[in-house]
Amino acid sequence: MKLIGRYLSPFVRRTAVTLNAYGIPFENVQIGSDDPKVMETNPVGRVPALVLDDGETLIDSNAIIDHLDHEAGPEKSLTPLSGKERREVLRTVAIAVGACEKTVAAAYEQRFRPKELVHRPWLDRLLGQAESGLKALDKQLGSNDWLCLGRMTQADISAAVAFQFVNMARPKLELEKSCPNLARLSAKLAETEAFKAAPLPS
Questions:
Q1: 62 with 97: CB under 8 angstroms?
Q2: Of 58, 91, 154, 176, which sits with the fewest C-beta atoms within 10 Å of its C-beta?
Q3: Residues 56 and 88 in one domain
Q4: 77 within a domain of the structure (yes/no)
Q5: 111: closest CA among 30, 32, 4, 5?
């Protein structure tokens, strides 16, 4: 398998960590969404894409991870395959992914607009949404070991990836102070082989 995209993208990285957690070997093709070659795997030029061994290409981290979960089967899946437990995990994942999306949107606002045209209220709203999402996850986690179901799920992987990404992109938010429970979870998962094998670029 080939995973297209750099680990700087939280969407690529959570996919890579999931592949590692399942023990699925893959090659990471380190190209960004601005590389023309990305269009060969996704016509809208987004990462990640996962090229399966038979040549089929899956796009979007949610769709890729859903495929991996079903391949793992109900006993090993990091996301329950049905029922209330599945909805609980997916809801939590959606908050984590949403925090990443808002942070990326904030980065684009500053990167691609001329400095004098950056709309500060919009930028502040985006960052406020990202921080609000992470604070909600921090409250949900509390003193527990895991976010959902009393065990590690995709919610924990996505939340840790989100925390690490936002913390890197926006250090002035001081997430270690505002989200101490997430900081604890993130530090714990950072020491696992699944995360170590998909490092966030420094």
A1: yes
A2: 91
A3: no
A4: no
A5: 32
User: Looking at the structure, do residues 44 and 102 belong to the same domain, yes or no?
Assistant: no
Which stretches of the chain drop beneath a pLDDT of 50? none
In contact, 49 and 42? CB cutoff 8 Å: yes
Tell me the HSE value of 109 on the side-chain side, using a 13 A CA sphere: 16
Q: How far lies 46's CA from each of 31, 81, 101, in Å? A: 11, 26, 13
> Looking at the chain, how many residues does it have?
202
User: In the prediction, which pLDDT does 33 show?
Assistant: 78
The rounded distance, in Å, linking the Cα atoms of 191 and 75 is 24
Q: Which long-range contacts (CB under 8 A, 24 or more apart) does 32-37 make?
A: 32/5, 32/6, 32/8, 33/5, 33/9
Cβ neighbours around 145 below 10 Å, total:
12
Structure tokens at 108: 């684009």
- 84-99 pLDDT tens trace: 999 999 999 999 999 9
Place of tokens 């045209």: 117
Q: 148 and 94 in one domain? A: yes
- Identify the domain containing residue 179 by its residue range: 83-192
